[in-house]
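Weekly sync, protein design subgroup
Attendees: M.S., D.O., the rotation student, P.L. (late)

Item 1: inverse folding check
M.S. brought a backbone from last month's batch and wanted to see whether the design step gives back something sensible before we order anything. D.O. pointed out we never logged the input encoding, so this time it goes straight into the notes. Structure tokens as presented (357 positions):
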């Protein structure tokens, strides 16, 4: 059955490589796969999104705050109001039917309005939870339509939300046809946003303890953190290669002997770990959040969170593991087609509930 699906993403960041984060990567993979399967997909996302998705830029009404409002440096009124207007405009347009009939509205944003205004929609709303509980999303859930449904990207995340909503788990998927097995090599790789919550400086310390050279890749979004914790540690086998995307990134991960993952918080999923496994690269990671759901003894090693000595041991051991087993783990459990199968099933169930009502 061909469905017409509305996908709502972030208004702030484009759904395009290099992805700002897992939310954008997830939306891109899901939209592309649904289109390949013949569904009609309406994508609403930030400016600069991949033209292949034919995304509609979320409308942002211009707003200029008063001098008094701007004095609150923590409020960032222009940014807050821009996002508010974008989602308000979209939800009102969907409620009026401006975008035609849709079978399901799938919300991947972190904004409260799609959930809070779900009662205005004729179509059921599905929200994928990508982060631990956020106050404004918790509040919005109180106003959600009775047929609003929730998905979490890991069992760990579903448990963290269970005091608010019941969510089924559908793990994020990656394109294992693009993330192909690589030959491996003597170096380790760390990929992601170079920010304190990802703790790349701890990956450097652990790799040095393990005696393994390390490549870091990703956007340095926090210049102060980078200058304080990362830059002084570069050299002597540790390189920062910038923000790579597409084939250069996939080639680098496939040529690594191990991928190091060092969240300083409970990671909701851990897309970089799944990408590494698809490349045949075993993973050494902190056992935080959902990472124990991704990294099993056959494809990686887990270390005590924040313990670089424990992580150094995990790095050395992971480099000895079978690359074929790592690849199989990704294909069987985290391939995008496996994810889309689950979402299609959920879309059809939601559409059936709506039709029966």
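Designed sequence read out in the meeting:
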């Amino acid at each position: 059955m061909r469905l017409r699906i509305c996908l709502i993403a972030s208004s702030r960041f484009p759904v395009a490589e290099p992805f700002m984060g897992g939310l954008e990567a997830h939306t891109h993979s899901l939209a592309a796969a649904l289109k390949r399967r013949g569904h009609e997909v309406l994508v609403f996302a930030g400016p600069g999104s991949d033209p292949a998705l034919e995304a509609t830029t979320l409308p942002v009404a211009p707003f200029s705050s008063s001098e008094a409002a701007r004095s609150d440096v923590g409020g960032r009124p222009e940014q807050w109001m821009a996002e508010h207007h974008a989602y308000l405009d979209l939800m009102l347009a969907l409620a009026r039917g401006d975008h035609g009939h849709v079978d399901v509205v799938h919300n991947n944003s972190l904004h409260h309005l799609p959930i809070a205004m779900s009662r205005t929609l004729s179509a059921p709303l599905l929200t994928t939870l990508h982060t631990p509980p956020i106050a404004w999303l918790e509040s919005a859930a109180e106003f959600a339509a009775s047929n609003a449904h929730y998905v979490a990207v890991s069992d760990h995340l579903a448990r963290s939300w269970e005091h608010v909503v019941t969510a089924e788990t559908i793990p994020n998927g990656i394109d294992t046809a693009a993330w192909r097995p690589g030959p491996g090599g003597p170096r380790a790789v760390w990929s992601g946003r170079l920010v304190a919550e990802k703790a790349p400086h701890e990956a450097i310390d652990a790799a040095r303890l393990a005696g393994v050279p390390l490549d870091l890749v990703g956007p340095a979004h926090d210049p102060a953190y980078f200058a304080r914790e990362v830059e002084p540690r570069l050299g002597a086998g540790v390189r920062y290669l910038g923000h790579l995307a597409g084939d250069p990134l996939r080639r680098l991960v496939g040529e690594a002997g191990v991928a190091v993952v060092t969240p300083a918080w409970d990671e909701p999923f851990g897309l970089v770990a799944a990408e590494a496994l698809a490349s045949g690269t075993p993973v050494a990671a902190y056992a935080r959040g959902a990472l124990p759901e991704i990294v099993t003894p056959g494809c990686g090693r887990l270390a005590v969170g924040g313990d670089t000595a424990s992580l150094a041991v995990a790095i050395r051991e992971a480099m000895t593991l079978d690359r074929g087993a790592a690849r199989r783990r990704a294909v069987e459990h985290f391939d995008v087609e496996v994810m889309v199968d689950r979402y299609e099933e959920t879309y059809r169930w939601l559409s059936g509930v709506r039709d029966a009502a």
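Discussion: The first helix runs from residue 22 to 36. The chain has 14 helices and 13 strands.
Action: P.L. to compare against the previous round before Friday.
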